[in-house]
């Protein structure tokens, strides 16, 4: 038997699907020992949640039996390899699992980590399109005029013919490209390496390596960042990169906050070099109350939650985990295996 321990909240219907994958599975789950959901489908739970000492002892007994974990266990991430000595594979509930796996000490072990890459791509892509549309159509001006009962005819813009630069054209980036293309946008993709048979070529009019990032940014009316959080991507979009964007460009980040120099971004927004931004991620989360981003009228702030779609994400999470469980039992390659060097 292969013992699977589910360490974050799951509804019974999804647990039943996991158990039904194969008779060789022993699935352990205790709802009272995992963080309660803040909303349907939430896997993280409230900030200050803790198990009692007695509950933690029971939870540790479950972890000691685990060969497979669904999600990183709250309260036992940094000592995971020690408290789960039989562990061979962790299926993360997040796409950007590299940082968590590194903090858990799994990068230097043989324990396989798989991510939820692709599960959140559609919702994140919709956020990017929403941001570009509201910017092009002057939604804030319309709302302001309505609030003031002011009839002020003005011109609007269009996405057609505009250039969108997607920095990090992986699963999320390709989903953005697929939704932006019908609006008649020109798509530029930036990725770590580019090769002739790159599947991203089917989604972009041109591909650039990160060594040509500034060149790509200079062509863009809109910039969407989808980068993972790794040492290599830290502040990749720095002051120089932001200055290379054309005046009036609009900026969206749905990747990781640490990929962007937030101070340089604030200055570019204040000075009018960038016309606005829509941000779902930040260097420090929750975004501190003293952050100047709260004061900028041309910034949309989303609390890292634009991909919280209860019905969809839990179903897709379960689909992915069940397929990987089947592959694991049959000795087949798993989907979304974390590259422990690149951390994505």
Per-chain topology:
Blueprint: E1 2-6, H1 12-19, E2 25-28, H2 53-63, E3 68-70, H3 80-83, E4 89-91, H4 98-103, E5 112-114, H5 121-136, H6 139-147, E6 163-167, H7 171-180, E7 186-191, E8 206-209, H8 213-217, E9 222-225, H9 239-244, E10 249-253, H10 262-271, E11 274-279, E12 299-301, H11 310-330
Parallel strand pairs: 1-2, 1-3, 3-4, 4-5, 6-7, 6-9, 7-8, 9-10, 10-11, 11-12
Helix pairs in contact: 1-11, 5-7
What order do the helices and strands follow?
Answer: EHEHEHEHEHHEHEEHEHEHEEH
Outline the biggest β-sheet.
7 strands, parallel
Radius of gyration: 22 Å
Shape by Cα distribution? globular
Mean pLDDT: 96
Weakly predicted, low-confidence segments: none
Query: What's the helical proportion of residues?
Result: 25-40%
Q: What's the end-to-end separation, in Å?
A: 30 Å
Please state the structural category: alpha/beta
Strand order of the largest sheet: 8-7-6-9-10-11-12
β-strand percent reads 5-15%
Structure described in brief:
The protein has 344 residues and is an alpha/beta fold.
Task: Explain what this protein looks like in three dimensions.
With 344 residues, the protein is of the alpha/beta class. Helices cover 31% and strands 15% of the residues. It has eleven helices and twelve strands. It has helices at 12-19, 53-63, 80-83, 98-103, 121-136, 139-147, 171-180, 213-217, 239-244, 262-271, 310-330; strands spanning 2-6, 25-28, 68-70, 89-91, 112-114, 163-167, 186-191, 206-209, 222-225, 249-253, 274-279, 299-301. The strands form two sheets. It has a seven-stranded parallel sheet. The chain has a five-stranded parallel sheet with strand order 2-1-3-4-5, covered by helices on one side. The longest helix is centred in the C-terminal third of the chain and has 21 residues, at 310-330. It starts with a strand and ends in a 14-residue tail after the last helix.
């Amino acid at each position: 038997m292969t013992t699977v321990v589910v360490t974050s909240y799951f509804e019974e219907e999804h647990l039943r699907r996991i158990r039904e994958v194969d008779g060789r599975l022993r699935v352990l789950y205790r709802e009272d020992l995992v963080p309660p959901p803040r909303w349907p489908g939430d896997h993280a739970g409230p900030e200050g949640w803790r198990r009692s000492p007695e509950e933690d002892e029971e939870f540790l007994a479950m972890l000691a039996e685990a060969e497979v974990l669904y999600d990183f266990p709250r309260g036992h991430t940094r000592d995971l390899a020690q408290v789960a000595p039989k562990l061979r594979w962790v299926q993360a509930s997040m796409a950007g699992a590299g940082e968590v796996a590194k903090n858990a000490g799994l990068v230097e072990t043989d324990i396989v980590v798989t991510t939820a890459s692709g599960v959140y791509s559609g919702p994140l892509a919709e956020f990017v399109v929403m941001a570009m549309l509201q910017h092009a159509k002057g939604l804030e001006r319309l709302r302001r005029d309505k609030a003031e009962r002011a009839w002020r005819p003005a011109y609007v813009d269009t996405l057609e013919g505009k250039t969108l630069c997607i920095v990090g054209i992986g699963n999320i980036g390709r989903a953005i490209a697929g939704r932006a293309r019908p609006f008649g946008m020109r798509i530029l993709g930036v990725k770590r390496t580019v090769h002739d048979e790159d599947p991203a070529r089917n989604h972009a009019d041109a591909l650039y390596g990160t060594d040509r990032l500034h060149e790509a940014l200079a062509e863009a009316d809109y910039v969407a960042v989808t980068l993972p959080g790794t040492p290599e991507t830290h502040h990749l979009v720095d002051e120089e990169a932001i200055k290379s964007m054309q005046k009036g460009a609009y900026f969206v980040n749905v990747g990781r906050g640490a990929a962007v120099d937030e101070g340089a971004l604030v200055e570019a927004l204040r000075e009018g070099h960038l016309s606005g931004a829509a941000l779902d991620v930040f260097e420090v989360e929750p975004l501190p109350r003293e952050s100047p981003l709260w004061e900028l009228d041309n910034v949309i702030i989303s609390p890292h939650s634009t991909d919280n779609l209860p019905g969809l994400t839990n179903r897709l999470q379960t689909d992915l985990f069940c397929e990987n469980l089947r592959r694991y039992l049959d000795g087949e390659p798993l989907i979304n295996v974390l590259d422990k060097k690149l951390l994505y």
